Each structure stands twice: as structure tokens, then as C-alpha cells.
Amino acid sequence: MSDSDDAVDVDRWRDELEAKRAEKDEFFADHPQSPIPPEDREEFDGLDYFEPDSTYRVSATAEVHDDPEVVLMETTAGREMRYLRVATLEFDLDREDEDLEDGTFELAAYQLESPNEEPLFVPFRDKTTGQQTYDGGRYMELSSERELEDGDEIVVDFNIAYSPFCAFSETFDCPLPPEENWLEVTIPAGERFE
Fold first, then answer.
1. In 3-state terms, what secondary structure has residue 92?
2. Which of 39, 63, 70, 90 has its CA 20 to 30 A from that of 151?
């Protein structure tokens, strides 16, 4: 899908994003597996989000790692989880707000050590971390229509960035974004957590 295709579908993209957010709020409010502790669910009135902004839905070029390196990610409970760095995603941010930094950025994409058809796991921190978003960082899960090859384009939509379950309850143990995925840029998209 090219950028021009994306521009045509902004309204549909926004509607789909809002529908997914409403579905997630319902899950968090009612589902037995919700990360919201049962005693807090009655007070829960939905997650906080940045306004949908298609500026933060970008096309990234993938560099696929044929021999993925093991990355040990620290977790919120002080353990380590083993992931494989399967790809590096390079993308440009070109924003109209002159107070925000533009440029070319990279994020590593990971899978658990038994690679399969699971989506790419992209944990990250940015300049909103610990202020407008969860201090342990946020996650994205990205899927490709086929197995990624070097030079392929994949959509990175920061509007789907979410807080890990451990933001809502200490009973969860979540991997923390490794330093290579700390973006020195403000990404005001996706879930907020203040």
C-alpha cells in the first residue's frame, strides 16, 4: 500500500481505530481477563488516548536479520525474557508542528525465541514516556501480509501503541523496551497513561 492509498482512506482508518479502541475499553471494563483489578472495574470509564493522527502512521523499510540476535529484555518484576531481534524498521517522521522533531528513526522488531507466524513485537519509549504515557514504555504489534524480506515496507502505526498490562496491575510481569528502542522524539499517538 502506498502513501497515496493511505491518504484516501484516512476516514475509514480513523473509524476502524475508534472501533478498536471502543472494543478494548469494553474488554477492560467487563472481561474476566481484564488487567483492571476487579475492585476497580466499576470506576473504569475507558482508557485515555491521544487523538488519532495519521501523521503517526508511517511506512517503514525493513532490514531483516537472517541470523537473529538474542536480546534479553528486563521485565517489570526484575526478570529477563529472551527475544530474537528479527528486523530493524527505519521510518521518517515529517510533522507540521515545528515544535516536534522530524527525521529518520529506527526501531528493532522482536519475536519470542520460537519464531512463528506471530506479529512483530515492537516495545518502545519516547519523550512522552513517564509523562503522558506509562513509565515502562509502550508496545506495538505489527503484522505483515507475508514473511518480511529485506527492503519490504511495513506500516508502523503509533496510533495503536498501547500500555502493557503491568501499567494497570502489579500482578503482570512485562518486558521493558531495550535501550535500542528508546526514541529521542515525542510520539503523541496511541494510548495515554498519566
1. strand
2. 70
Q: Is 132 left (phi over 0), alpha (psi -120 to 50) or beta?
A: alpha
The rounded Cα 2 to chain-centroid distance in angstroms is 21
**What one-letter code names the amino acid at 1?**
M
Instruction: Single out the residue of 194, 120, 108, 130 nearest to residue 160, CA to CA.
Output: 120
Q: Which DSSP symbol is given to 58? A: E
Please identify which residue in the block is written with the cell numbers 526514541.
183
Cα 37 from Cα 156, distance rounded (Å):
31
pLDDT tens-digit series, residues 20-71: 999 999 999 999 999 999 999 999 999 999 999 999 999 999 999 999 999 9
The C-alpha cell of 21 is what? 479502541
| Cell numbers for 59 | 511506512
| CA 125 to each of CA 31, 67, 78: distance values in angstroms, whole numbers, following the listed order | 28, 26, 18
Task: Tell me what pLDDT residue 147 has.
Answer: 86
Report yes or no: 190 and 158 within 8 Å, Cβ to Cβ: yes
Does the reported pTM lie above 0.85?
Answer: yes
Strand partners, 91: 105
- Find out whether 20 and 49 touch, Cβ atoms under 8 Å: no
Reduced to 3 states (helix: H, G, I; strand: E, B; else coil), residue 91 is: strand
C-alpha cell at 170: 502489579
Q: In which residue are the cell numbers 505483515 written? A: 144
> C-alpha grid cell for residue 51?
487523538
